[in-house]
Amino acid sequence: xxxxxxxxxxxxxxxxxxxxxxxxxxxxxxxxxxxxxxxxxxxxxxxxxxxxxxxxxxxxxxxxxxxxxxxxxxxxxxxxxxxxxxxxxxxxxxxxxxxxxxxxxxxxxxxxxxxxxxxxxxxxxxxxxxxxxxxxxxxxxxxxxxxxxxxxxxxxxxxxxxxxxxxxxxxxxxxxxxxxxxxxxxxxxxxxxxxxxxxxxxxxxxxxxxxxxxxxxxxxxxxxxxxxxxxxxxxxxxxxxxxxxxxxxxxxxxxxxxxxxxxxxxxxxxxxxxxxxxxxxxxxxxxx
Amino acid sequence: xxxxxxxxxxxxxxxxxxxxxxxxxxxxxxxxxxxxxxxxxxxxxxxxxxxxxxxxxxxxxxxxxxxxxxxxxxxxxxxxxxxxxxxxxxxxxxxxxxxxxxxxxxxxxxxxxxxxxxxxxxxxxxxxxxxxxxxxxxxxxxxxxxxxxxxxxxxxxxxxxxxxxxxxxxxxxxxxxxxxxxxxxxxxxxxxxxxxxxxxxxxxxxxxxxxxxxxxxxxxxxxxxxxxxxxxxxxxxxxxxxxxxxxxxxxxxxxxxxxxxxxxxxxxxxxxxxxxxxxxxxxxxxxxxxxxxxxxxxx
Amino acid sequence: xxxxxxxxxxxxxxxxxxxxxxxxxxxxxxxxxxxxxxxxxxxxxxxxxxxxxxxxxxxxxxxxxxxxxxxxxxxxxxxxxxxxxxxxxxxxxxxxxxxxxxxxxxxxxxxxxxxxxxxxxxxx
Lengths: 288, 299, 124
Known about the structure:
heterotrimer; B: alpha/beta; Rossmann fold; Alpha-Beta Plaits; nine-stranded mixed β-sheet; two-stranded antiparallel sheet; C: alpha/beta; Nucleotidyltransferase, domain 5; six-stranded mixed β-sheet; 3 helices; 23% helix; globular; disordered C terminus
């Protein structure tokens, strides 16, 4: 089972919930993928020891000027204006390049070779309680997160795993799509405030477009009102878990403690959340 | 005209609440600055929820292309699938088809197809709006879910906002930035005079603050910093203060956690309008004075 | 004094237009051939570009045989392209283009400088 934990709004507690879930089901030896490659935080809660790393490269064009005849075909096919041909000079802008390879394929003189351009890094290792952990880290100044997330999903340093928890970045655009794509279930973490509700709605729409079943966790219950619950009822989305707001919890999480350590009574509830999601998926399978 | 962009790295640190509060303070009788506001978090645009805007203009936003295969012309040679690097082409019993969520619009298949069966279709990616808010004109947008947030929409919003600010001779453009450090953030910070980094003193918050400061640095953008929800961690707050001293960054604010902030949000207001003498409001007011000095003070 | 093909970035096609500050996404270019006196307004093909508007706009002008560009802000990618093509770049304020044309002929326009490093911000 691949579970994506997302939210729409940032800061609602995705990583908190995802990490606690991993700890609660550690005996299943889950794989935790921290897909928030721009601002990864899960290592703070799960303390992985990294034993494997891999660079994430994008292939960008490099032009052999001896073979190039300045025909400009490469610039013509590039949808991103990452190549400019000026007479006999060819300029490449790697930060605009999407690594699609089209220019290389279409060059009539075969004058283009693709060379690696470092976008970021993948790291993997074992975290607390035997949880398998892998993450991607975007290089500062690099604009695109998606290639890193894609590479992270494909990377298989642990072989085949039964249970994967993908910790998504905030928002609902391409990096989140990549994190949800191929998953079986989406768990949306929200807070009961107007900002939380507004963005939950967007995230629900996104999961819907991808055809994925959704469950909600309401975090910091008590800080707002009942509009999130009303919304979930109206669209028939189950609220699977509620975590109360408390400054004590906030401070412990700020220190990097896991939620299930601060509130040990929640350990069985997170385990229950996992079982609940699994059984919903089986039911869904059965109904097809 | 000055441009202030509000960033954080980590999501949920309070950028939008602070952007709203600063908009109020800039406008107040006593606060004499005319402003234009841009909500650059086009994925999850929340600023309007506390500014009560009246929409005055709406425009469709077209961005990017997606490949489509005409089954009549397709000869099932499989070239498209061979060249696609984004796993966006699938083979089905009746031919090849494009997965619109995976397709990046690179057109490699379009150029590779020997039967000219591929067309590239323009995408309606969302919409952008100009609204009249309590404090000034607000430019905001809604990107449709699953769209590529390449920064083009952010750039468009900011250009409109900047143009208006220049035309109306406004003093300040406030840009509420998105979380993260990628394209949309890079577009949001482009052309700004100063970035206000809103840092949360949790371990995660401090970690991500370093990444956004490094990013701003990479693009030669001067920063000032404030700590929000200070009492979340006194240790973290101290660490941030030390970091600022070491890097020569000016700390312009220290705002305590205050339940007034979500309460104000629930009422559709900024915290400084909702409870002007609450602890967060007083701290933000103090911060605004320091930000004014940075933006308009002597060099 | 200078006999060359110039491009000005324009906001509108109206009579007596003013300079548009942006380069990559300006709506129009005014192309002036100071030798023959011919002038024409062209739409900027990069206006709707999702990515790389600067490089696209720059390449367009190079292909048109433009030898000097007068604009407000020229971004780093566009700057690289124009520089590599030997196109001179001038930075000016949003005055009417006729005034800027005289300024250019009198040698009173300031050369544009590349913005610092990877520069997207404006460090003082």
